[in-house]
Design a protein that fits this description.
Porin, 335 residues, mainly beta, 6% helix, single chain
Length: 335
């Protein structure tokens, strides 16, 4: 299957070269060490160490439209290499002044930016690609995104699951308003089962904030606060359960140092794909970040985190090196 897939990509490139003027590629590696020393009742401790290699290439058909094909490979240290960890990357991209459209299997990096309370950050390790569609519309005063990620196709043994999300931002100046929405549809298999019920789950965050990065000596200074709620229903078993809480975040950085603190108060959230630590009635996460490289092609940081929960304080550490060698080269069209 891998050989057939590679032959299709090569054939696609050879076909498109007669109509294209630019050869474009996106390649690099994302190396991570994420050690979570948790001793609480909300989530299990885990250590994640691995390397992702991503590579895709395509052609710029015209000023706004392009096609890509490639792969993303994840290898976790200490595990045996598995072909199942090779994920295809194939998508169409449209980018104009006020709109972006992605359709196919494409990287979620820099596109899906939902807070952890809605979507856990482990998705970037184990599901680096969105398989569906992403839409973005922007103006100087704000933007709106919407996306669909089909996470499992229904078969006789596999459930049908998908994610729908969106982000809207209003930025009149340094003050801003923003919301994030997420819905997770967890259906059954193709074979009916009386004990298998459809589950509807999701949530919404809404907050306002201020960005003072241009008004201080700091590189970044941003504060935002607002509300978050989740909903959960298992059809024919229990009605919709709504949970409400407040969410506040402060981020500041200067030179090679960054500090982020996030506070949650309220009813324990119910999010199937969110960070389980927000199922506590109180949760504070404080991150101290040291940036080693902040260039476009090489980015590296180490992060030390404290997690304050009722009756317990946990710690975690994270180290990351991200290398991007994407580029574009003009070619001569073949008639």
């Amino acid at each position: 299957m891998i050989r057939i897939y590679l032959l299709l990509i090569i054939g696609f490139f050879c076909l498109k070269i007669s109509y294209s003027q630019y050869f474009i590629w996106n390649a690099g590696t994302d190396n991570f060490f994420d050690n979570r020393e948790y001793f609480n009742k909300y989530v299990e401790p885990q250590s994640m160490l691995g390397t992702q290699i991503f590579a895709s290439a395509g052609f710029l058909v015209d000023e706004n439209n392009s096609f890509y094909g490639g792969f993303n490979f994840l290898h976790e240290y200490g595990s045996k290499p598995a072909y199942a960890n090779i994920k295809p990357t194939m998508y169409f991209r449209h980018a104009s002044r006020n709109a972006k459209v992605y359709m196919g299997s494409f990287s979620r990096r820099n596109l899906i930016t939902h807070p952890n309370v809605l979507l856990t950050d482990t998705f970037k390790y184990y599901r680096p690609n969105v398989e569906g569609i992403y839409l973005e519309f922007s103006k100087p005063w704000g933007s709106q995104t919407a996306w669909l990620d089909w996470t499992s196709r229904q078969t006789e043994t596999d459930r049908e699951t998908f994610l729908i999300g969106g982000t809207g931002t209003l930025m009149p100046a340094k003050w801003f308003l923003q919301y994030n929405f997420l819905m997770y549809h967890y259906a059954g298999t193709a074979i009916p089962d009386s004990t298998d019920h459809i589950r509807d789950n999701g949530g919404l965050t809404f907050h306002g904030g201020i960005n003072l990065s241009e008004n201080t000596f700091l590189d970044s200074l941003c504060f935002k606060t607002g509300l978050t709620f989740s909903y959960d229903r298992l059809r024919h078993v229990y009605d919709t359960d709504l949970r409400l809480g407040s969410l506040t975040e402060l981020y500041a950085s200067y030179n090679f140092f960054g500090l982020r603190t996030t506070n949650y108060f309220g009813e324990g959230q119910i999010q199937m794909v969110g960070d389980g630590l927000y199922s506590a009635k109180f949760y504070n996460r404080t991150d101290l970040i040291i940036y080693f490289f902040k260039k476009n092609r090489v980015k590296s940081f180490v992060e030390f985190s404290l997690h304050f929960l009722p009756e317990v304080v946990d710690v975690s550490q994270k180290f990351s090196i991200y290398i991007d060698i994407s580029g574009k080269k003009e070619i001569s069209a073949i008639n």
